[in-house]
Inverse folding.
């Protein structure tokens, strides 16, 4: 949808590009400072007219009503013709791209959040009252557009069971679950843990990092927060002396922290959540709020523990329980391999191959049916 932040959707895109390096990548906006991988010369990156609007890289939310229009004007082409397959990597509106004769496979990170779960979205976004009112006025039209666009998709893939349920509820469509890729082999199993817990996330309100900061500040236990974002100043202001903010770190340092921590804290609800799988790849347990994608990835009692609701007291209780347990690091790592990179590439390639083969068979059947009777005999 947009390339102005570096998170889970962008990590998936990098894997998709590595699988299909010759395929052009269409997006609305692109900030090479925030997503440097897409600036590589090997990427055939094509942006929309939205990319020229003032301030959109840093503040794309005010322009959200324009994204459906931009995607409705976009039709991918290869050498002047429709491609065989268009794969949309969607959390916003890119499933509305015009695909012509191509088979459209939508890898759905979630149905458009602020269209279908507006109250949840607004609860964690600092929008002024006028902007909130404008969004509510536009919501019926945006929902109609979003739903119609979803009906033009040929096949949906969901990143988790909870997203598959949302696709059914919002769009009335079935989907196949293929979990996102995690490069488990690039994360070594950690040794003896040190006495700190880790948060690894963008610091934006809906991630609910404030729950972890509050819990660890009250307990006086050490928490290291890795990541940056617009919520950082608020979180630092509420943090006690045992909570440390490291900002964005090089990948090597992140991997080192994963291998040294007691475990990962995951206080928000995510559609999937790459960081919990990365922590498990290092053999570390995850303490997570019960809900979202971690219901697919965490085996309660075996690879982590759940707590209920965005509640600091409940999180603190779960941390105490996790510290009282003995965790099998090798078993946790073996569990994480179920979500590895090779598995994703195999499942997605097979899915696309089967859909293309099915489309070709359908086309051949239609061509045969359209021929005159004397030709058929």
């Amino acid at each position: 949808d947009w390339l102005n932040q570096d998170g889970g959707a962008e990590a998936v895109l990098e894997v998709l590009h590595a699988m299909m390096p010759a395929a052009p990548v269409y997006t609305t906006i692109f900030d090479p400072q925030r997503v440097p991988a897409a600036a590589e010369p090997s990427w055939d990156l094509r942006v929309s007219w939205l990319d020229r609007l003032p301030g959109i890289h840093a503040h794309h939310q005010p322009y959200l009503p324009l994204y459906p229009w931009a995607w409705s004007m976009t039709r991918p082409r290869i050498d002047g013709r429709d491609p065989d397959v268009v794969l949309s990597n969607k959390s916003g509106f890119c499933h509305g791209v015009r695909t012509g004769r191509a088979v459209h496979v939508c890898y759905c990170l979630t149905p458009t959040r602020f269209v279908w779960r507006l109250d949840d979205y607004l609860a964690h976004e600092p929008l002024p009252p006028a902007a909130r009112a404008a969004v509510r006025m536009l919501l019926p039209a945006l929902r109609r557009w979003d739903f119609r666009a979803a009906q033009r998709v040929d096949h949906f893939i969901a990143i988790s069971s909870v997203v598959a349920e949302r696709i059914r509820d919002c769009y009335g469509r079935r989907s196949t679950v293929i979990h996102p890729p995690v490069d488990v082999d690039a994360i070594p199993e950690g040794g003896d843990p040190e006495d700190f817990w880790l948060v690894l996330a963008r610091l934006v309100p809906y991630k609910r990092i404030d729950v972890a900061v509050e819990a660890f500040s009250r307990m006086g236990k050490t928490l290291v927060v890795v990541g940056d974002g617009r919520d950082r100043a608020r979180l630092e202001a509420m943090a006690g002396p045992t909570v440390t903010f490291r900002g964005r770190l090089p990948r090597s340092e992140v991997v080192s922290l994963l291998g040294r921590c007691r475990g990962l804290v995951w206080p928000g609800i995510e559609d999937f959540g790459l960081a919990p799988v990365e922590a498990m790849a290092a053999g570390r347990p995850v303490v997570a709020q019960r809900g979202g994608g971690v219901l697919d990835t965490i085996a309660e009692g075996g690879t982590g523990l759940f707590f209920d609701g965005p509640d600091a007291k409940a999180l603190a209780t779960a941390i105490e329980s996790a510290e009282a347990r003995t965790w099998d690091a090798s078993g946790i790592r073996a569990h994480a391999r179920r979500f590895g990179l090779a598995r994703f590439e195999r499942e997605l390639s097979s899915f696309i191959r089967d859909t293309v083969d099915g489309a070709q068979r359908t086309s051949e059947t239609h061509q045969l049916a359209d021929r005159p009777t004397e030709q058929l005999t």
Residues 189 and 282 are 4 Å apart (CA to CA). Residues 363-377 have pLDDT under 50 and may be disordered. The first helix runs from residue 8 to 19. DSSP finds 15 helices and twelve strands in the chain.
